[in-house]
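W.,

You were right to be curious about this one. When I first looked at the sequence I had no strong expectations either way, so I just let the prediction run and decided to look at it fresh. Below is the sequence, 143 residues in total, followed by the output.
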Amino acid sequence: MIDMKGIRTLVGRPLTEQEQRHIAWINGWDREARESFVALIKAAYWNGAKEGGETVKASVSGMTEQDIKQFAEALAVRYKQIVDADLAAKIACINDQTPENALREAEAFAQYRFYSEMLDIIPKEIRLVFNAAYDALGYQVVG
């Protein structure tokens, strides 16, 4: 199923009622078609597509070493929170299989996926500092 919260995060604004209805309609399509739709949305987001054909690229230009360090450390702390929340939601869902816990688990996993995919595109200069900061929190980055 297409995660509306994840799509809303990717487009950067609340979805209109019409967009929500269309996504609900697309959720009725077969799995391959839904995955293609989601892949298009993600590709547009990750490639920074905008009207006029401009492309946004992740860059550290204009950032000092201190800026990079502060950003990467804050990102590591937030990513740890995301990972912990995803794990806690999975455990809660296993221990108490209620619709509310299933929804929390789905939302936590959507946030986890979003951050994991974002880590794949951050500049190397930030990624190296992020990895060290995340390791210092007692975690190890996989991938």
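Here's what jumped out at me. The longest helix spans residues 65-95. And, maybe more interesting for your project: The mean pLDDT is 79.

Coffee later to discuss?

I.
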